[in-house]
Amino acid sequence: MTTPPAIDGVAASRFQLPPGPWTTVLDALCACFPKVDRTTWASRFVRGRIFDASGTPLPLDAPYRVGAEIRYYREVANEARIDATETILHVDADLIVVDKPHFLPVMPGGGYVADTLLARLVRRFGDIGIVPLHRLDRLTAGAVLFSANPATRSRYQALFRDRAIEKRYEAIAAPLPGMTFPMQRQSRLVRGEPFFRMRETAGEANAFTDIDVLERGATAWRYALAPITGRKHQLRVHMAALGAPIANDPLYPMLRDAAPDDPQHPLKLLARSLQFIDPLTGAQRRFESGLSL
CA–CA separation, 213 vs 38, rounded Å? Predict the structure, then answer.
């Protein structure tokens, strides 16, 4: 199988054609991705942006075959560019550690494809094989770890799977004077409404966060957050459930109306540090964000 080259730092996506009544690959793609209109798909064929598994560009009338794997490039018309700049904290043969600014997505998704942290790294290092080992929300800033070597990738992925990596966050939120710290929030998180939100529900806990206070102000406190598990939006949901939603959070506890990013008022959540025993060398490693809230 041949992998097409990255375009503007964006690798080709894979898609296996499902069973269906279609005559051409174009028909199948239009049906499977209805949010992308037929004219856009046709343009991608004409511009050589749709490939078969061997890396050969497909013609506009390429016949549909169930189970066939194709490659295509995601595109966003008039994609907005993000002014914030990332900082490289560390590079070696296996790892790249990056200080991600607020508002920059780690991976392509929604209206962001070419201007993501991953695409920026692919362009910077000329390496299509770079892969994030974990993710931060677009609105969260701080340290992110990437694998630069497929041969050692699984060793570092295991750190996250086995909870062998210590992740520390900082957050600014309302005071909680009636609570005793340090404490641990335990709850069961499930998908909420709309689909991109999470919520707590009754049942066996599947999300655990250690919480302490670093600094106490009159109207806001600085908290230290250590997620034991890695559920989506876990820190944001847990802080909101305690009665101290993270400052400038547009999703919790209530969903706010969509608004443009405001660099002057980012979500006050920072992935401060990552610490672990290197699975290759046995050395203690710690990477810390240089950003502040």
Answer: 54
